[in-house]
Amino acid sequence: MTSSTASSPLARFNALFTEHQRPVLAYAMRRTHTLADAEDVAAETFTIAWRKIGAIPVEEPLPWLYAVARRVLANHHRGNGRRERLASLLRIEDVATPMRAGEDLDGPTFLALASLSPADQELLRLVAWEELGNQQIAAVLDITPNAVAIRLYRARARFADALSRESRDDDLKYLDPSRTSADVKGTKRAAWKGAAK
Amino acid sequence: MSMANGPDPIDRLGAANPTRADEVPDASLARVSARIQEHIVTDIQNTSTIAPRRRPFALLGGLALAGALALAIALGSNFGAPAPGGAPIAANPSPSENPAAGGGGLASCLVYDPANLPTFDIVFDGTVTAVDGDQVTFDVNEDWKGAGDSITLTAPDTDVALLGEMPDFAVGGRYLVTAAGSNINACGYTLDYSADEAAKWAAAFAG
User: Fold this and answer.
1) Which of B18, B106, B158 sits opposite A14 (nearest CB)?
2) Fewer beta carbons under 10 A from the terminal one: N or C of chain B?
3) Predicted complex ipTM exceeds 0.85
């Protein structure tokens, strides 16, 4: 009388959350500057998932969740200015999104990524960090797999060029120790954590 | 535009992944889970189509329960750490810690403590005389609060994953029962009768 069945919405949601909570939170952490923001995005994504549980593809729900998270992030970035002003007034100190040890935010890889358009950045992040295939990316971005393949080919080439350029600049940094690679490019810290376009 | 020689730049970007899924903080997952639970509990309570049978404020009582659950989460009382490997988060005591409480998954119960019993609308020791769908009728053996001599309550189709276990009521069975309005509470606050537990419930209303 009181226990759920495997097909009940709540049981299905529980299974969905259990399986995908980590990738969704990681997705949000890679694209937000603070841990609280990432948690907001993940919580809102799963709340939407709960309310639309019947619309989630059974076979491959993760791209659907990423697509929702992407829209939540876009709203979140739009509201960021207001939130930051409020946090400043309330003197809220937020915790920065943790990074894996050893990663250099001013390193050539991140600078090269930051130099690309938001659309290219997101495409490359979905491939390299979410490890999605073209079909899955198409579901996230709501475009055709063919369009993904074409855009990815171009984005990959632009990234390769940028990486080559940033690596040369990184070498210059060592020739002139007073300059950081951020000085060389004038790139702001973690600029690659832009809005998911 | 030219492709760089050497390793695929995508591989290099992948190696620079700033946050791997298996490295996200467990505390963050717990906070995310708690936020979702609040929404789900509220949604379930708000969309309940069960008509109040005994009092017009039954739904309000249900909402109060939802609030209490949310508060229990917010206060972090007995908030368990996520199980290894990203398993669901249980905020209620494990059965080994609390034989009265069940649940798992997203369960988020007020910590079981007989001292909380007086906060419920209805608390009694009763024997089931009839079960009709989700309607359960009890003869009340001991009325600690709000039950009268006989009472019919709804056993909501709660999900063990969300609100913990509830006994499977059977005619002739004896239970310790709490209810919010006309809805029987889960989360270990309704359980099979035992003399020891009944004594604790009685003590909660003593004096």
Assistant:
1) B106
2) C
3) no
